[in-house]
Amino acid sequence: MGFGRDLRNSHEGLMKLQDWELKLLETVKRFMTLRVKSDKEYASLLLNISQQVDKHDNSSQIHYVSTVSKVTALSCIMG
């Protein structure tokens, strides 16, 4: 009758579908792994830049305070 042949074709079709789904999941896994790695690198670089800016800001504030102190000291001496 044709039932056995149809069943065999259905089985092969299901196997192909499962193979395709496995390949898709492997691709998604690779993508997610790369995304996590990229996000970690981005966060690390952002932290590094933030720390450099903080150091620069702190040194600028110290320089400003130092300059103001010198001007104040000179005005006291001269005034």
TrEMBL record:
Gene3D superfamilies: Arfaptin homology (AH) domain/BAR domain (1.20.1270.60). InterPro entries: AH/BAR_dom_sf, FCH_dom. Residues 1-77 form the FCH domain. This is FCH domain-containing protein. It comes from Sinocyclocheilus rhinocerous.
